[in-house]
Amino acid sequence: MMEWVQTGGGQMEKVAQSLGQLAEAFLLSKRVSGCTEHTLSIYRLWLSRFISAVDAPEPLAAHRFVAVWQERGLKPSSLHRGVRALRTFFRWCVATGSLLEDPLRGLAIRLPKTLPVVPTEDELKAVLACCPAKTLLGKRNRALILVMADSGLRASEVLRLVVEDWTPAQRSLLVRGGKGHKDRVTFVTPTTARALREYLGSHPVVAVEDFLFADMQNRPLKRRHLIQILHRLSAKAGLPSHRRLYPHALRHFAATSWLRNGVGIDEVRRLLGHESLSTTLRYSALVASDLQQAHKKAAAIERMRLT
């Protein structure tokens, strides 16, 4: 791996640069370009794994690295995320002249086309019932879950909300710097607005610049805290481990509920902040299964018992 540097005499010459140095430079460039901490953590994790396992970024070694993780039983979605992170790094290396080619070129990880796991209304009700109505934490957790299930916000988006992003008169939330660094506005129903009002009304000190969802010391919640809250409440509600709530499941709940109630696919895309309509179309298959069940119950031909 080489890079161009200027010598004392003004001449340009190439010097060797370690893979670790390149990784640090890459992470710095991504931070400067506005990558989220969550995305940076994924880059950092997979670069660390690669550097510790591979001596040089050569195609055979890179492909073997991916095969090893595949043999370890890593979920296809996680492996796909890792390969995508590494490929972004290698393409950056090629663009900056540090590598001649992408060692992962030609490698494709096929993802199984699974449908999103969506909580049922009864499961969501059971979890909400486990939020104590008279405590600040109970009110916060109830409002937090309702906002996510009602607005379809990503975990990173809901945790970045500050008090001034909430407009009670319009029941709207301003999402700043969503995926792709795009702002958008999303909305909630009167039930969620009421939960937010009760939560903020119980908060001892609320300033417009405070995070909307914070801990008892008014520090912003982290992603791991959000997952712990959802898993703890799911267990308390008696949900089996494979049905417990997680942040993206609430986003799935919002999307499918909109489609089932007649919201157009492009409107759902905009509410969710999807760049591509193909991402939103995943939810249409879930709604199609609902239609199949409804057709089966209501079909007149079947009731006629024709022979």
Largest sheet: 3 strands, antiparallel
User: Would you identify the CATH architecture of the largest domain?
Assistant: Orthogonal Bundle
Q: Say how many strands there are.
A: 5
Q: Which structural class should the secondary elements be placed in?
A: mainly alpha
> Kindly state the mean pLDDT as a whole number?
84
Return residue spans where pLDDT drops below 50 for at least 5 consecutive residues. 1-16
CATH class division of the largest domain: Mainly Alpha
- What's the helix-strand series? EEHHHHHHHEEEHHHHHHH
Q: For this structure, what is the CATH homologous superfamily of the largest domain?
A: Intergrase catalytic core
Strand order of the biggest β-sheet = 3-4-5
Overall geometry comes to globular
Distance between the termini: 75 Å
Domain count: 2
As a whole number of angstroms, the C-alpha radius of gyration is 24 Å
